[in-house]
């Protein structure tokens, strides 16, 4: 046995020929995931049959794994298909939007320069997206300011200070529930409390309050996770050096957790920038000009797209397609920044 | 086998511990009837220990005997644990550290600590060492103090060209010496070490042992260790804890290892128990 195994190079070719294991043939022909998976069972078989004098064959003859390997591969195929489904849907979506985008630019001669520099208009050939883009940027900035400090503050309280009591658990359960509230409900709240309640009207500030409330639970939960990921050893090192609790949080814990907190915040804002329902609810639609400040009326990117898509004119519908491409580009680049930040910092802490 | 161990230890005690015994003992830390409970579980049972100034006091004993608990009582790190209850006296220069008017933060500025696992902050080497001084509002020559502390921790020559590099890029042994530098930079009186070499390879561990020998010129060192040879090599006084949180023997290291009073200590040291 050992003598044969000493010289695998001469054994190897005969192995493949003498193989009569059906599972091995299947693995070499049907290899959807590439060479690695296909090669592994073959080398196993190679060792098996390398000792195929009568005794070696009898050694594993009672173990029939053919069916089990078949099940493995069938399961792999099913879950691979399942995970490809999402990719396929995204690809179809992008294809559809980009086709419309292309038709819009060629057939309807939507100039990208005008699209980025003109405000909305009742006349499609003069309509642009600038007002909506600027409104959305202002909306995001306000939302970030409103939600970040309150969100991170409550995450610090819950992770670092709050005793493990019934009240703390109640707060955390509430946050989890808030994260699941449909976005239109936040719009309804802003409409009732701000737009009509104190009579602000459908202004940008009301929209950003609704969006800030919407993303706050997400920011809190992701900030809590980032704080929890800071090792206790580092906290103890700070306390043992004679730091107070706040010094420890301010100088050691927060800097370590900040990349994670910022990643979560960016992802939350990326969700907020595409939200349409709360903005529709407070009436941020059918405004065609660039807002001058937080107290001005506005229409954000998603509501402008919504308004255009509801127009009967094909020209407007293709304007909406171009708008969607711009919105998607902004959204994907926000996500990319978040992913890059996570990759850059996760190795360092 | 056990007799061989014994001889090994004895030789090292007699060769390693000379010259430091001539200073008069002045007690820095004294515990009297110190009891610690975690919930209903007793972790320490009436501990009486006098820790002398400018000496290395080693605390040895099997796992779960309360060595680390005792160490963490000294700088009140056990305050972080909700279920922990402490009775009895632990006096630092005669003042009970558990008196109402003692601020644990102030206490920890006089009693530094080094942990089992190196735990540098995710900051630069310079900022790691400067941390203790910064939080105390020190506004003198920070670079000089950082250099002094790094020299004191025998790390300066290895890191002087990369002070702005991350403390986490150092090797395990270097990280542990960085933590020692961080602990000594604010110039405390006492340094507590909780198994500082157990996560290190033998070479790095022996560097730390040499360092402890130097540190004791300026500081009082209390070290918890699993390693009896280490305790014998570096300590002047040894306290032996056994399971149940009892202190069974506390004496000069040489006499604990050569001639223990308690049979259980002899069994433990010679490896028959624990």
Protein described:
The complex is a heterodimer of chains A (349) and B (274). By secondary structure, chain A is an all-alpha fold. Chain A has 2 domains: 1-107, no CATH class; 116-348, MetI-like (MetI-like fold), CATH 1.10.3720.10. Chain A has 16 helices and no strands. In chain A, α2 packs across α4, α6 (66-106) packs across α16 (314-346) and α8 (130-161) packs antiparallel against α13 (245-273). Chain A is flat. Chain A starts with a helix and ends with a helix. Chain B has 274 residues and is an alpha/beta fold. Chain B has a single domain (14-118, 182-269), classed as P-loop containing nucleotide triphosphate hydrolases (Rossmann fold), CATH 3.40.50. The radius of gyration of chain B is 19 Å and the shape is globular. In chain B, α5 crosses α7. In chain B, the strands form 2 sheets. Chain B has a 6-stranded mixed sheet, with helices on both faces. A 4-stranded antiparallel sheet of chain B has the order 2-1-4-5, covered by helices on one side. At the A-B interface, α12 and α13 of A face α3, α4 and α7 of B.
């Amino acid at each position: 046995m050992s003598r044969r195994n000493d010289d695998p190079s001469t054994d190897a070719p005969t192995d493949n020929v003498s193989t009569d294991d059906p599972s091995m043939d299947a693995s070499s022909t049907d290899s959807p995931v590439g060479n690695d998976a296909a090669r592994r069972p073959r080398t196993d078989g190679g060792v098996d049959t390398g000792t195929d004098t009568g005794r070696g064959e009898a050694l594993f003859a009672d173990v029939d794994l053919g069916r089990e390997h078949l099940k493995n591969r069938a399961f792999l195929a099913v879950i691979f298909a399942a995970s490809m489904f999402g990719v396929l849907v995204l690809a179809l979506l992008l294809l559809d939007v980009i086709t419309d985008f292309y038709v819009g630019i060629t057939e309807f001669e939507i100039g990208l320069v005008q699209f980025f520099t003109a405000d909305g208009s009742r006349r499609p050939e003069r309509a642009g997206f600038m007002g909506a883009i600027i409104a959305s940027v202002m909306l995001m900035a306000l939302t970030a300011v409103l939600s970040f400090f309150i969100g991170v503050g409550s995450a610090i309280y819950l992770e670092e200070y709050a005793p493990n009591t019934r009240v703390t658990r109640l707060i955390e359960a509430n946050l989890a529930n808030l994260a699941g509230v449909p976005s239109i409900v936040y719009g309804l709240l802003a409409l009732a409390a701000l737009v009509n309640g104190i009579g602000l009207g459908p202004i940008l500030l009301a929209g950003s309050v609704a969006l800030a409330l919407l993303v706050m639970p997400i920011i809190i939960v992701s900030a809590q996770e980032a704080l929890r990921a800071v090792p206790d050893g580092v906290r103890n090192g700070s306390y043992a050096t004679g730091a107070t609790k706040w010094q420890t949080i301010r100088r050691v814990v927060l800097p370590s957790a900040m990349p994670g907190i910022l990643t979560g915040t960016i992802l939350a804002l990326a969700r907020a920038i595409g939200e349409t329902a709360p903005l529709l609810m407070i009436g941020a639609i059918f405004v065609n000009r660039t807002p001058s400040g937080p107290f001005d009326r506005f229409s954000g990117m998603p509501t402008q797209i919504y308004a255009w898509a509801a127009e009967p004119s094909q020209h407007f519908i293709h304007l909406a397609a171009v708008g969607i491409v711009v919105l998607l580009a902004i959204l994907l680049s926000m996500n990319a920044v978040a992913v890059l930040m996570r990759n850059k910092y996760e190795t360092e802490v | 086998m056990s007799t061989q161990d014994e001889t090994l230890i004895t030789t090292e005690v007699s060769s390693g511990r000379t010259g430091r015994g001539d200073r008069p003992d002045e007690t820095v830390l004294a515990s009297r009837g110190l009891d610690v409970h975690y919930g209903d579980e007793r972790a320490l049972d009436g501990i009486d220990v006098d820790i002398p100034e400018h000496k290395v006091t080693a605390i040895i004993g099997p796992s779960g005997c309360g060595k680390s608990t005792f160490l963490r009582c000294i700088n009140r790190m056990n305050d972080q644990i909700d279920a922990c209850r402490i009775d009895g006296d632990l006096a630092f220069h005669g003042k009970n550290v558990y008196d109402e008017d003692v601020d644990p933060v102030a206490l920890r500025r006089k009693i530094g600590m080094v942990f089992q696992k190196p735990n540098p902050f995710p900051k630069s080497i310079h900022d790691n060492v400067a941390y203790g001084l910064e939080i105390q509002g020190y506004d003198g020559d920070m670079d000089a103090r950082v250099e002094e502390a790094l020299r004191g921790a025998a790390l300066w020559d290895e890191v002087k060209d990369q002070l702005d590099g991350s403390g986490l890029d150092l090797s395990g042994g270097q990280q542990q010496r960085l933590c020692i530098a961080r602990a000594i930079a604010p110039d405390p009186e006492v340094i507590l070490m909780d198994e500082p070499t157990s996560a290190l390879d033998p070479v790095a561990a022996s560097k730390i042992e040499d360092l402890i020998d130097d540190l004791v010129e300026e500081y009082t060192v209390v070290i918890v260790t699993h390693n009896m040879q280490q305790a014998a090599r570096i300590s002047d006084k040894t306290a032996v804890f056994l399971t149940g949180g009892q202190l069974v023997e506390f004496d000069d290291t040489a006499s604990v290892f050569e001639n223990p009073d308690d049979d259980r200590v002899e069994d433990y040291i010679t490896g028959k128990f624990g």
